[in-house]
Structures are given as C-alpha cells and as structure tokens.
Amino acid sequence: MKRILKWGGIAAALLVVLFIVAGNYFYNVAVSRSEESVELYGGSETASTLVDEEEQRKLEEVLQWTEEQTFEEVEVESHDGLTLSAVLLKSQESNGKTVILAHGYKGSNEQMPGITKFYHEQGYDVLKPDARGHGKSEGGYIGYGWDDRKDYTRWVNLLIEDFGAEEVYLHGFSMGAATVLMTSGEDLPAEVKGIIADSGYTSVEEELAHQLKYLYNLPAFPLMEITSAVTKIRAGYTFSEASAVEQVKKNDLPLFIIHGDQDELVPTEMADVLYEQASGEKELWVVPGAGHTEAYTVAEEEYQKRLKAFLE
User: What are the helix (H) ranges across 76-221?
Assistant: First the structure.
C-alpha cells in the first residue's frame, strides 16, 4: 500500500510539473511577445486569398497612395506605464471626425491600407495604434484586446484633448475587432459615436480553445485553465475575464458587426453570439464567400456602402 501511495505521489507530482511546463509553453507561443509570426488555424489575417490581376492592381494603387501620405507619430502612456505608439494621418479637410483602426494578432499599424484610404477620402483623421506588445509599442505580452481596451481609452482622450476630435469611431479587425468590442463596454467620452468590428471573437478563452483544437488536436481542459493561470501570473489577466461578449452587454453605442461566412480562424458563429448579446443599436452583416478579415476585399463596394450608411 505504501509503495502504491509513493508511486502515486510521484506520478501526481510529475503530472503537475508536466502541466506547468505545458502552460508556460503555450503562454510563450500564444501570449508572450515575439517577433515571429504564428501560423494560426484558418489562414493569414493580413491578406485575402484573392490574387487576380484586378485585386493586385488595386493593392498596388493603395500601397502607392500610402507611400505618398504623411503620417505623424504620436505616443501615449498606458495605465501600467508602457509607452504606446501610433501614427496619425490628418485630413486636409478635417471635419472633426476621427477613426481609430485596430490591427490583428501579430500585426502593426502598417496594415489596413485600403480602409485607411477610404476613411481619409471621407474627410476623417485616421489614428492607427500599434497594440501593446506589437510594433513600436512597449509591452512583453499580447493583451488580445483586454488590456488594450484601457489603452484605447487613452487614445480616445488624446484625440479629443490634443487634436480636437468631435466624433470618434473605433474600427477593428480580428484581434482589433475584439479590442474595440471590449472597449465598447468601458465608460467612454460622449465624443465616441460608434463601433465597427470585423471578424472579432467572443472571448480569448473560446478563441484560443478553438486554435488549440485544430493546431494541436488537444482538448481545452485542462490546458486552457493552466495557461490562463500562467497568464494571470505573468500578464495580469485570465482568458475567461477577457470577454468581448460581457463587454458588449454593457455597450450603449451603435455597433456594426462584420464577419465572413467562410471564416475558419474566428468561427462565423461567434459573430451571431456577439450580435445576440450586444445591447443598444446594432447591425450584423455576414459576407458571403469571405474568409477571415476578407470582407473588404471580397465585397469592397458593398462594404463601403454599408459603412457609409452606418457612419451617417
């Protein structure tokens, strides 16, 4: 009996060590800052799979336009003392309207050139932050939108106080969509008028569990709980508390949710859940034939038309 207890204790201790090692491994892969790109299930966040000549021509034009613009570098300090970086493109005919564009996982403010051009042509000033743990912004971990929601209140205040913004809209893609959704539940200034979320997830817990299943063929329990505990210790938040669903329940701003019906990186069903749980005025557009963050490429004209209608 003593031998059984002894070996049982050893096995239990080894299992605990194994779980701790696994939790730290998945934290380093998914949460810790790294310059290496992680190949997520569902494809790339940064470009459409459409590569025909017309799409290539449009891309070259918008990249050429981007090169010709003058972006001003701006900074704010986060609530926990990080220096956060962004670029600001001022409109020559500024109308007091500004949009903050939020990029996706492992991205930067150099992305989203097409939608940047669109907003600029509508007379908007465009602010494009690097999320904490990305680009030129400081931070040793990725917040998946949770800590970033506090960062975005700082960006909003900067626009109002230093640049005279009278109307501010938040428009995010993928992790950036989750960021603006999570921000929507905060106590925001009256100048913030609306939220646009393209391909956002319901919660960090559900999105990482989705990735764990397809990338490693592993069940969420108990690895998600262990990695979440490691994240709490090393980054200060848990996966379960980082919920866009709980935040949109508190939202009272007009909300426009966009999602592709072929999205496998962030399942389309998450858009339905977010729409159902959101408070206030809301709209859902599921784009036929669009994969992850591909709606603007797949249906550019319709995207612009619907976006104009929402903004008006």
Answer: 113-121, 146-163, 175-183, 204-216
